[in-house]
């Protein structure tokens, strides 16, 4: 019913930049929030940054000042601009959306399949 498709991952040198995109599609009635999480082997998935429909943002301390989350409501798309990348930013980045599907009574979490970001020289 709902698909989240991520793009923009890849290999980048330390200090470089990448922009991730995630487009939500399907029988969507309303999107409450969209955001990005990341996961490295052996660790739990952790919030990177999230943006509510009202414009409130939340981000991990480790990315503040370097990463910027934004959203195109008309396209149901969320972006993550990542600057000054560090090797410790290497992870699989997952798109998340909290949304209400048409016909459902309440919103749910949906996840993309993930995109790998590797920061290495």
Overview of this protein structure:
This protein is mainly β and 121 residues long. 0% of the residues lie in helices and 60% in strands. Strands 2, 4, 5, 6, 9, 10 and 11 form a 7-stranded mixed β-sheet that branches. β9 and β10 form a beta hairpin. The relative contact order is 0.32.
List the SSEs and their pairings.
Blueprint (H helix, E strand, L loop, with lengths): L1 E6 L2 E3 L5 E9 L1 E12 L6 E7 L4 E3 L7 E6 L4 E6 L8 E11 L6 E4 L3 E5 L2
Parallel strand pairs: 2-11
Antiparallel strand pairs: 1-3, 3-8, 4-5, 4-9, 5-6, 7-8, 9-10, 9-11
Question: Which descriptors would you attach to this protein?
Answer:
121 residues; 4-stranded antiparallel sheet; 7-stranded mixed sheet; mainly beta; 11 strands
What is the count of DSSP helices, taking H or I runs of 4+ residues?
A: 0
Ranges where pLDDT stays below 50 over 5 or more residues in a row are: none
| Cα-based radius of gyration, to the nearest Å | 14 Å
The percentage of residues in β strands lies in over 45%
Distance between the termini: 40 Å
Cα shape: elongated
* Coarse structural class: mainly beta
Secondary structure: helix percent: under 10%
Mean pLDDT: 96
The profile of the biggest β sheet is:
7 strands, mixed
The topology string of helices and strands comes to EEEEEEEEEEE
| Total number of strands | 11
